[in-house]
Amino acid sequence: MGQVEDEARRVAALKACRRVLANPARESIAERMARLAQEGAEAYDTTAPVDFYGDEASVVGEVERRTAELLGAPAAAYFPTGTMAQQATLRAWAGRTGNRTVALHPLAHPERHERGALTAVSGLRTVHPTTDPRLPSAAEVRDFEEPFGTLMLELPLREAGFVLPTWEELVATVEAARERDAVVHLDGARLWECAPHFGRSPADIAGLADSVYVSFYKSLGGISGAAVAASADVVAELRAWRHRYGGQLFMQFPAALSALAGLRNELPRLPSYVAHAKRVARALREGLAEGGATWPRTHPDEPHTHQFQLWLPYPADVLNEAAVTQAEETRESLFGRSRFREPDLPGLSMTEVTVALDALDWSEEDVRRAAADFAARLP
């Protein structure tokens, strides 16, 4: 079966499911438009004029004001993508510090998913205080042998398993950067769901840094879009860089409306997702083991956010076939659109599990039972 046919089979199976634990099937265009019309009207006056090149007296300006308020910052700038947002921010800091070197983790998004854009587009250089699958410690930042102008911290570190340090560790790492006269930028694409782990508000977390980027689609269910919060003078410069990078879009009201809807509807729900993810991870391990799967592991054992990794020692194609067959035969799906892949060793597979609104309908026993059924389909 070809890739197109395989994906069509998966989508059809998910559409027919009575319920999906994680990563449900994508909405149709008509479904997404209808939801945007309803949720957008609940979050903003949709009788107002559309935006015009991101003017502040529009829905885009409202997203910026609301983001700044939630993050306890003087101002925020809206960007069409997170990649552009961080390009502009790190380039601005390079000019202000006089140092074009950015210290970040080798698993961070700019290093793994942006085709070397920091160097190719912005002329920046990156260094890595640690290669361990966690954020750098205070000692690693303080003792790093090369100077750098900006320390970028991804919260959580997605590729390492959505992992976070303790609050005390994070504060110490930030203080170590300050001792070196470096500015601190937070890649907070998933900052919103970090609050329960730290026991702090998003504003408390953002207050540690000189700038923070947040996404409106990764956890909040928006169409697209991002923002960077910082001081008013930095945000003014970011708007200039946004124009240079091609982010001065004529109209962005659909994405901006969906951002406001996400802040209104999803943001208050995130703590319940994070709490339920701990139960889901435990039930997955127990159910898979009961069903006969070898060495089921979630990483972290207790998730730090509402997302975590599931590892199983089977080829990815075997696991993906079992997943779609289970969906077809039981009309229940554990993993939805998420596929297993073999990132390190052949035959050792991983998938990411995101616990959101649909997952709240699953009890631990529901997850355990479905996981045991899934395991029974494995060789």
UniProtKB/TrEMBL annotation:
It comes from Actinacidiphila paucisporea. This is L-threonine aldolase. The keyword Manganese does not apply. GO terms for cellular component: cytosol. Its cofactor is pyridoxal 5'-phosphate. One of its GO terms (molecular function) is L-allo-threonine aldolase activity. It comes from the Bacteria. Keywords: Pyridoxal phosphate. Residues 52-285 form the Aromatic amino acid beta-eliminating lyase/threonine aldolase domain. Belongs to the threonine aldolase family. Pfam families: Beta_elim_lyase (PF01212).
